[in-house]
TrEMBL record:
PANTHER family: AUXIN EFFLUX CARRIER FAMILY PROTEIN, SLR1864 PROTEIN. The keyword Repeat does not apply. Keywords: Cell membrane, Membrane, Transmembrane, Transmembrane helix, Transport. This is Permease. It is a multi-pass membrane protein. The keyword Lipid metabolism does not apply. Belongs to the auxin efflux carrier (TC 2.A.69) family. Residues 153-177 are annotated as: Disordered. The chain crosses the membrane at residues 6-22, 34-55, 67-87, 94-117, 123-143, 194-214, 226-246, 258-280, 286-307, 319-338. It is found in: Cell membrane.
């Protein structure tokens, strides 16, 4: 327990440093987004490449990965079913609510947690891969399709205002015209966005190096190790900077949606991960890693996606804030129980 408190205390101290730097504008107004880009595009890929290249390739087909993917999929499916089937939310709001419930902050919090608490940066890889290769592409597909339908509806409404009713279209039904962006092009855009992600590229490169029948010279990895060593502390500083940033007004999140997202994020997901991991017979260290990753708060990326598509912004913002506050006691319980 002392080691757990030390790890969490270290992380809290670095986050507090980032908050102080942001509160007194020591690094300037643009520090948070700039550091976030450095962490995302440079430091984290370097760390993952150098660590995954030395990892066991069974990672992708291990019980640990299966427990992570299965528990995350169950939580995402639960959120989607409740929001869509029970509460009849629009598709875009369902997508953002599902992400708020299942897409965790694996970068700013998960990576440092894997480094300082679990002593294994590779522990975050199954979570990152599932989010970047499954959750994000599915979400982009739904949101892009919804945005295309909205644009088509707006264009149709504009035409209706400019012409008489008998001249609407060729069918005379007034139906919304075909989607102006073919599904093939949307799928290609999603695939391109996913496969050009620096974290995905670095992980795939690391896996390719690990699969080589011979070992690459260690000097090849030293620059990546040096740069990658900055990933965890910079991620924590960036997180602290984001906490110091003023909160936008943006309205209030629907209470039921927020309660669902926070409950799934802070309580249900860790419990489901523990149940799946136990059923799969994971050893204690692996079970701790799976449950700790499941206990992470909602990722800030969800708010970025919501702002990009202009749906569910208040829910993404409030879910991130509340789940971040709750993650510390939840992680303490997880560590005390399984550590």
């Amino acid at each position: 327990m002392t080691a757990v408190l030390t790890a969490l205390g270290t992380m809290a101290a670095v986050v507090a440093l980032g908050w102080a730097l942001g509160r007194w504008h020591v690094l300037g107004e643009r520090a948070a987004p700039v550091l976030a880009r450095v962490v995302f595009a440079v430091a984290t890929p370097a760390l993952l490449l150098s660590t995954v290249a030395h990892a066991d390739l069974h990672l992708l087909v291990s019980r640990t990965a299966a427990a992570t993917w299965a528990s995350t999929a169950l939580v995402a499916a639960t959120a989607a079913l409740v929001l869509r089937v029970v509460w009849r939310r629009p598709a875009a709001d369902v997508t953002v609510g599902t992400l708020a419930s299942s897409y965790v902050n694996a970068g700013n919090i998960g990576l440092p947690l894997a480094v300082y608490l679990l002593d294994d940066p590779v522990a975050v890889v199954p979570t990152l891969l599932f989010q970047l290769l499954v959750l994000a592409p599915v979400a982009f597909t739904v949101l892009d399709a919804h945005a295309a339908r909205e644009r088509a509806g707006q264009d149709d409404a504009a035409r209706d205002g400019a012409v008489d009713a008998p001249d609407r279209g060729t069918t005379g039904t007034g139906a919304v015209p075909a989607d102006p962006v073919p599904a093939r092009l949307r799928a290609a855009a999603v695939a391109r966005r996913t496969l050009t992600n620096p974290i995905i590229l670095a992980t795939l490169a690391g896996l390719a190096l690990a699969a080589l029948p011979w070992s690459a010279p260690e000097t090849l990895y030293e620059p990546f190790r040096l740069v990658g060593a900055a990933a965890a502390p910079l991620a924590l500083v960036t997180f602290g900077l984001s906490l110091a940033a003023p909160r936008g007004t943006g309205g209030r999140a629907p209470r039921r949606d927020l309660a669902l997202a926070v409950a799934l994020r802070a309580a249900v997901h860790p419990l489901v991960a523990w149940g799946v991991g136990t059923a799969l017979g994971l050893p204690a260290p692996a079970l701790l890693a799976v449950v700790a990753m499941a206990a992470l708060p909602t990722a800030q990326n969800v708010l970025v996606y919501a702002m990009r598509y202009r749906h569910g912004e208040a829910l993404a913002r409030d879910a991130g804030l509340v789940s971040t506050v709750l993650c510390v006691p939840v992680l303490l319980v997880v560590a005390a129980t399984l550590g």
